Amino acid sequence: xxxxxxxxxxxxxxxxxxxxxxxxxxxxxxxxxxxxxxxxxxxxxxxxxxxxxxxxxxxxxxxxxxxxxxxxxxxxxxxxxxxxxxxxxxxxxxxxxxxxxxxxxxxxxxxxxxxxxxxxxxxxxxxxxxxxxxxxxxxxxxxxxxxxxxxxxxxxxxxxxxxxxxxxxxxxxxxxxxxxxxxxxxxxxxxxxxxxxxxxxxxxxxxxxxxxxxxxxxxxxxxxxxxxxxxxxxxxxxxxxxxxxxxxxxxxxxxxxxxxxxxxxxxxxxxxxxxxxxxxxxxxxxxxxxxxxxxxxxxxxxxxxxxxxxxxxxxxxxxxxxxxxxxxxxxxxxxxxxxxxxxxxxxxxxxxxxxxxxxxxxxxxxxxxxxxxxxxxxxxxxxxxxxxxxxxxxxxxxxxxxxxxxxxxxxxxxxxxx
Length: 418
Known about the structure:
Elements: H1 2-15, H2 17-55, E1 59-66, E2 86-87, H3 88-97, E3 102-106, E4 108-118, E5 121-130, H4 132-137, E6 142-145, H5 150-154, E7 159-163, H6 164-171, E8 182-187, E9 190-200, E10 217-222, H7 223-228, E11 235-236, E12 238-243, H8 249-263, E13 271-277, H9 279-300, H10 302-321, H11 323-331, H12 336-372, H13 381-407, H14 411-416
Parallel strand pairs: 5-10, 7-9
Antiparallel strand pairs: 1-12, 1-13, 2-11, 3-12, 4-5, 4-8, 6-9, 8-9
């Protein structure tokens, strides 16, 4: 019976192709709009998440900050002392105490801007001391030579990695021959000589700590070597950790912060440790994008309501045109339920066909928009299945009234209808 109703519905649609198409149009536009919005929203979400990942989504930053005092009279200004700094002992303690929760600790020491020279040519670079974890997190692409080795780090070797951009300024097109050669770097008022062991490909830093001035590239040297330049103790104003996979970053941030403040900064009169991770910003961004997607999709879904009313309207017209047919069927013994199901099925068929066209059109429009925005997005199969199911429910909802009206027609009145 159900298949017969579907065939009757398809025959009715074919007999009035233009009217059927116009009836479906509201459904098509509504479904297409929702699908396209979901794809573009997913693309925007992916783009935002990629940006966070480039900035170090699993990175937690800890830094020195001044304590907050309830009474302003308790605050006494003084310059920062070496004992206020984050020491190597603290870093080692953190690494041991949170070994199962921390993947690695990223340590850098910015030695400021340095002038690197070779014969009569020179260029400016940012001299940066890094440990092995910091260097690996930068994901450098080596073009020539090698990266800094474990021996370089442990022996405080005066070795360096230079960017292809800086190397070209010093050596021109022959920069590939720079590996193994010494270069001189003026740090403050002192000249230091480093051996270049590798040339890396320069890429603009997308980190949240990167400077807006991208004219200077970094000259990377071992961390201990950087502190040896001015014979200073190894200490930091900040450090970063990369959380272990699956670790709750917010909880880990608070645990490490509390541990350092209780064990090392409890008696410090002015400074303590604070920290933050990008996880809270990521969660807020996901939530905001999700709400925007739903809001826009809800607005687009208004056209579905208009389309549903159009389906109801055209079904009423169809029933009026087929009154004598309904009367004949009832006179031959068709029950009210059979008549009702016939017209509900016809409404469902209209909505499902319109929904199918809308899904295809929406995926096409969404993919096109994502391509034009140079970001990739997709729609979950659950959304597609939901749209098909929604179309069927829509057909039942808006088809029931005219179908029920047809079922209640008096067969004698229906047969007399002109």
